[in-house]
Amino acid sequence: MIARLPDSMQVFERGWLSANNILFTGEETALVDSGYVTHAPQTLALVRHALGGRALDRLMNTHLHSDHCGGNAALQAAYGCRTAIPAAESARVAAWDEDALSYRATGQQCPRFGFDAVLTPGDELELGGLRWQVLGAPGHDPHALLLFCADEGVLIAGDALWENGFGVIFPELAGEPGFDETRATLDLIATLDARVVVPGHGRVFDDVPGALARAYSRLDYLSSDPRRNAENAVKVLVKFLLLERQRIALAELPLLLASIPVVAAASRLVGRVDGEPVHPTSQGRVDGSAVHASNERSNVEHDPYHALATWASTALVRANAARIDGPWLVDN
Questions:
Q1: Does pTM surpass 0.85?
Q2: pLDDT band, very low/low/confident/very high, at 271 (cuts 50, 70, 90)
Q3: How far apart are CA 105 and CA 101, in angstroms?
Q4: Would you list the domain boundaries of the chain?
Q5: Domain 9-223 top-level CATH class
């Protein structure tokens, strides 16, 4: 069965580099989340096509990871739309602190944008002629928000709940709490009479109990050994880089990982992956379906990121999320 949405609401399912965009029409038009910067021209084209000759009046974000707000600047330039962001991020955005906003930490891009309103848990909004509650959703991001329309039973979940899981629990990588917050957010969603969920990535779905059961199971798995969350973060960040660049030279991957602070934090937590220690002496070769590190240069022996790059590449190839093409790791 195809999950049905109100007539005033349209979802652009974007994949994994860009978050889904939710467009509302009515007396005013509004867009929730704007995708990644490299997809900004496509985002703008989708919005223009859907609106016809109408302007985009309002823009808002469930949270400020780059795949959810990377199109903000382009949409503001095109439409001069009013923009609302999570209140807890307002000082960081006003100062445009790319370290505090996680863009440098994750090795991702986001053009500077402004805002003229904030969203706080407990607020109520009108979008598409419907009333929406703003709810806090910490876990994946400590300042993330949900939007819930009780009358229609529709939940805009961002990365707090997907059909099969949720976003990386980034705070845990920095030694901050995230597992308990993720569980509390899932508990909150379970109390809502949500019949349809619009996730940050993936298709709209209506088996909310099934998605919650899978999310709780995933959380139990990750929280029982924090290394698993760190391993997942490294794989996700490398996959994101592949989605953006399409291919990465295997010889350059260790240096690239070393330049991303979140990966550095994750590598300290990983310690061992797939039962083997991640240490500077891991070695091997590139061999078709699996990736093994070349240990031809002496400095590689002293580079822990070489072992981490080897492991991450191998894991992505095994998951059919990437492939080896000569000296390149290529997106699948």
A1: yes
A2: low
A3: 8
A4: 9-223, 226-331
A5: alpha beta
